[in-house]
């Protein structure tokens, strides 16, 4: 059952495997180790992937059933970063689709997207204007890609871009497995003053073929709390924080609404990406952050000790 799920999806979290096979994560982890010893799959960052190199991209039907609880928590927290009357861009993905469902309740919002699923989630929202890019439909994730999509974004300026992807590392930033999707995501980034990445813990430390957002352009990461045993995800969170990425953990213990992981000292970037946007969320920092006190280094340190 485990091997079949990994073959079908390309990458599956231990949490999801345990849920499907109705056993504990400890048992699943033991079985994954045995399959890895036979060369049938690779363990990676709280989950299992097909053996060898970069992970391949799963289709939408497979992605929509992965880490559903984590995506819901991430979307809830990300929606709280959006203020009434803002203009934003939302990229394609199952996590951003969850975000769009919550944005339907934000009045006066303008959402620019290349995702049919995001547009569908907002189609009947009152007082939310949806602007779609042009482009060629990519059926595997219901997204518009290609030169038409990129050209329609030229000259656009919004306050925030909300993007997902296939992997996230401190070294390369956000990445995806498809060249056309990566190119459109880069155009979405150029249109925004701030970039918010939505990525569950299974994507932390995973690297895929095409970079979409380098780490120094990521303003904030919204993620879920890694399992206590997932030291690699915690290490990646710390590395991202050390590079100045603001980190918000959805559903953190003792704080269901999520909390920010204090970052190290931020180096401000030139240009408008770090500039002030009216109506900013309390989580935003547009200036260099002071070195946090030991008690405040918090969230990452607490996670690491578990």
Describe the protein.
It is a single chain. The chain is α/β, with parallel strands linked by helices and 306 residues long. The protein has eleven helices and 16 strands. Helices cover 33% and strands 21% of the residues. The strands form four sheets. An eight-stranded mixed beta sheet has the order 6-5-4-9-12-14-15-16, sandwiched between helices. Strands 1-3-2 form a three-stranded antiparallel beta sheet. The chain has a three-stranded antiparallel beta sheet with strand order 10-11-13. A hairpin with a 3-residue loop joins strand 10 (167-169) and strand 11. Helix 5 crosses helix 6 and helix 6 runs parallel beside helix 7 (116-122). The longest helix has 13 residues, at 25-37. It comes from Streptomyces achromogenes. This is DeoR/GlpR family DNA-binding transcription regulator. Residues 1-50 form the HTH deoR-type domain. It holds the Pfam family DeoRC.
- Uncertain runs are 58-65, 253-257, 261-297
Please count the helical segments.
11
Gap from first CA to last CA: 30 Å
Strand order of the largest sheet: 6-5-4-9-12-14-15-16
Question: Which short descriptors sum up this protein?
Answer:
306 residues; 21% strand; DNA-binding; three-stranded antiparallel sheet; single chain; alpha/beta; transcription regulation
């Amino acid at each position: 059952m485990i091997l079949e799920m990994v073959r079908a999806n390309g990458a599956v979290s231990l949490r999801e495997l345990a849920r499907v096979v109705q056993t504990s994560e400890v048992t699943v982890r033991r079985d994954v180790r045995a399959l890895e010893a036979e060369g049938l799959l690779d363990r990676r960052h709280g989950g299992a992937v097909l053996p060898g190199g970069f992970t391949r991209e799963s289709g939408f039907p497979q992605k929509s059933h992965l880490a559903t609880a984590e995506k819901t928590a991430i979307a809830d927290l990300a929606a709280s970063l959006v203020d009434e009357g803002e203009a934003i861009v939302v990229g394609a993905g199952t996590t951003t689709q969850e975000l769009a469902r919550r944005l339907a309740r934000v009045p006066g919002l303008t959402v620019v997207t290349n995702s049919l699923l995001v547009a569908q989630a907002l189609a009947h929202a009152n007082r939310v204007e949806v602007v779609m890019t042009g482009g060629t439909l990519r059926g595997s994730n219901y997204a518009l890609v290609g030169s038409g999509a990129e050209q329609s974004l030229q000259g656009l300026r919004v306050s925030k871009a909300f993007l997902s992807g296939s992997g996230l590392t401190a070294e390369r930033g956000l990445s995806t497995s498809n060249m056309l999707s990566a190119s459109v995501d880069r155009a979405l980034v150029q249109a925004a003053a701030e970039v918010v990445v939505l990525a569950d813990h299974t994507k932390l430390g995973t690297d895929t073929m095409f970079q979409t957002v380098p780490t120094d352009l990521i303003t904030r990461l919204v993620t879920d709390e890694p399992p206590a045993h997932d030291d690699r995800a915690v290490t990646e969170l710390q590395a991202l924080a050390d590079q100045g990425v603001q980190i918000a953990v959805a559903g953190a213990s003792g704080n269901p609404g999520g909390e920010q992981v204090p970052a190290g000292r931020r180096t401000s970037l030139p240009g408008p990406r770090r500039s002030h946007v009216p109506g900013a969320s309390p989580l935003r920092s547009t200036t260099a952050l002071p070195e946090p006190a030991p008690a405040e280094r918090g969230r990452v340190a607490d996670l690491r000790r578990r």
